Amino acid sequence: MVQGPFEIMGIYFYSFLADISLSSGAEQVILPPWALYIMVMMGLAGIMAHVVLASRAYARRDLWRSGSNLLEWRPWWLKDVVLILSAIFIYLLWVVLLSRGCRLFGFSVAPQIISILSTLAFAVGCGAVYSRMKTNGVSWNDSFGSENKTFLKHVVHGGIIYLACLPVIWLVSAIYVGGLTALDLELKQQAAFDVFASEQAPLFLIYMSLAAVVIAPFVEEVIFRGILLPMAAKYIGTIKAVILVSVFFALIHGNLAAFMPLFVFAIYLSLAYIYSRSIVAPVVMHSLFNGINLVFFMRFFS
Question: Cβ(5)–Cβ(296) under 8 Å?
């Protein structure tokens, strides 16, 4: 996950209100008019999308009840979550021990190798999910609600809901960044951006971009919205589960400046899954989030 238009737009709003400079490190960041124009157009489209979606949700309140019931019916339990997360944790622990062990014995391991090995945790997560599905005897559709005949519809839903969440996240970011600035806290970019900020081999950048835009959104949505959310909903109810999983999602990214935007975005991801009844919609939203943020960063901050 990377930090981009959501947080930066929040900083721009706060900069305008408080008459402060937008800066990244020691350099002032000036966005060209065309970039601001695109962001304004996305914001306006998002407001219209939000009005339409909110009106539909209010008119069809039964959609929330049926979606919530279906969420709690999904075949994921605490045992499944523990086994899947344990597999990912053990693999990442192995990567850390491998890196430190090599340094202990005087061997040098390139940071790119560690980055690639770390991204393979997504493959471990996929394998663990597939194993649990086979063990429980459940299908992909039962587990995540995705059917081939409705795939394109859910892709469109994901794009619309992504636009709808933009104005809300920008407003929240403005308030949040203002509060952090008032407290004189240092705003840092997420660690994942360090890979793209430095000069790297083209093939490595292509691999990491693919991991950020395609692989990570798919695996993270399967685990967070597809598995953690329905499991938590069984025990504490849908609304509390949405809040709890969203907090956890924002926390694991380990960045203070991005916490509130990620929390709000995670709520929209959860709502997209509940209302669409398919994991495709939040995956599309997450891919757009990472892809646009990555392009934004590479264009203006790298």
Answer: yes
Q: What is the DSSP string of 281-297?
A: HHHHHHHHHHHHHHHHH
Contact (Cβ atoms closer than 8 angstroms) between residue 43 and residue 207: no
What pLDDT shows up at residue 17? Answer: 42
In one-letter notation, the amino acid at residue 102 is C
**Model pLDDT for residues 97-119, shown as the tens digit of each residue:** 998 888 888 887 788 888 889 99
How far is it, in rounded angstroms, from Cα 100 to Cα 103? 5
Instruction: Give the integer Cα–Cα distance in Å for 290 and 205.
Output: 15
**Bridge partners for 23 per DSSP:** 28
Distance of alpha carbon 136 from alpha carbon 154, whole angstroms: 26
End-to-end CA distance of the chain: 16
Helix residue spans in the chain (DSSP H): 5-18, 33-59, 62-73, 78-104, 111-119, 121-136, 140-144, 151-182, 193-197, 202-210, 216-223, 229-236, 238-251, 256-276, 280-300
State residue 30's pLDDT score.
64
Estimate to the nearest angstrom the gap between the alpha carbon of 58 and the chain centroid. Answer: 26
Q: How far apart are CA 198 and CA 205, in angstroms?
A: 10
Contact 244, 236 (CB under 8 A): yes
pLDDT value, residue 247: 97
Identify the pLDDT of residue 197.
65
Q: Please identify every stretch of the chain with a pLDDT value under 50, giving residue numbers as ranges.
A: 1-3, 11-27
Q: How many CB atoms lie within 10 A of CB 196?
A: 18
> 219: which 2 tokens?
């695996």
pLDDT given at position 27: 47
Two structure tokens written together for 30: 């000036």
Contact 264, 169 (CB under 8 A): yes
